[in-house]
Amino acid sequence: MSNLISALDKATDNSGIAKIEEIGLQGMITLRGDLSKAAVKKAATSVTGVEMPTLGHANHDGASGLCWMSTDELLVLCPYDQVADTLAKMHTALGKAHALAVDVSDARASLRVSGPNAREVMAKLAPVDLSPEAFKPGMFRRTRMAQVAAAFWMVDDATFQIVCFRSNAQYVFDLLKVAAQNGSEVGFFK
Amino acid sequence: MLILNCPCCGVTAEETEFHAGGEAHLKRFGPDSSNEDFENYMFMRQNPKGVHLERWRHNNGCGKWFHAARCTMTLEVFGTYSAQTYEPPKEICDLISAKRPGWSWGAFS
Ligand SMILES: [Zn+2]
Questions:
Q1: What is the pLDDT of residue B1?
Q2: Architecture of B3-99 per CATH?
Q3: String of b and e for A129-161 (b: at least 16 CB within 10 Å)?
Q4: Looking at CA atoms only, how far is residue B61 from chain A in angstroms?
Q5: Which fold has domain A12-24+107-179?
Q6: Domain boundary assignment for chain A
Q7: Cβ pair B62:A69 closer than 8 A
Q8: ipTM score here?
Q9: Which CATH class is domain A27-106?
Q10: Stretch A149-153: mean pLDDT, rounded?
Q11: Is there a contact between B63 and A128 if contact means CB atoms under 8 Å apart?
Q12: Given A70, A127, A141, which is nearest B63 (Cβ)?
């Protein structure tokens, strides 16, 4: 068996105003279908143990979770080594429902930005209102970070978790490093 | 810069999160149409100064298409509405009328 490593092999940078880390392999399954259908809901909730997220939100329990991607798409998170099992269970739960569940874990990378300046660092890169009143833990947002597509949510009030394409991992990591340069605090959210 | 609200996912963001998809409410003329109809469908656009109806896609977000009514001169956005329609809904027409009385665009006013 080959040694599985994530895009940046858990690279970390702690030199700036926020901590940036690539967090390693994360199981991700794209589920597309009519999110109001019982079989689709069951396929998503039964394997993650969390409730269906509402529009623009995500529910998490450790490495498992459900993120609202669009009106007909969920991102199902699970531990990386359980993707095959999870997918099999989902296909059973879906039965004949018109839906699609596909393993996309190796097409993506996961990063985290943490620390008291995490909001500022993220706000420099995405066209999103990241004030504490507007963006809170529990919310989920698909957007762009500089020139590439990305999605993120807040693990807690000072930690963002980002999902981007694996081929963009180095770009996003470098982008975050520049946005977190020492002395670059704006103080906008203070 | 335009601030658009995606009617599919509810997100309000500036235009770089979206992608413009050209003029709205085109009627397609396909293989059996006349040359003139096909030319009009394929190449002729309104290019108005003022009220304009366009297609947009939330390409860095939920990925869905929708319609937007805006002013090409002031960049004011009157409203956005579903892609699944052949004409602007009444509430959008009312919003435009409130700001630009007497407006017309193609067959709509
Ligand atoms: Zn959207």
A1: 87
A2: 2-Layer Sandwich (3.30)
A3: ebeeeebeeebbbbbbbbebbbbbbbeeebbbb
A4: 5
A5: Gyrase A; domain 2 (3.30.1360)
A6: 12-24+107-179, 27-106
A7: yes
A8: 0.88
A9: alpha beta
A10: 98
A11: no
A12: A70
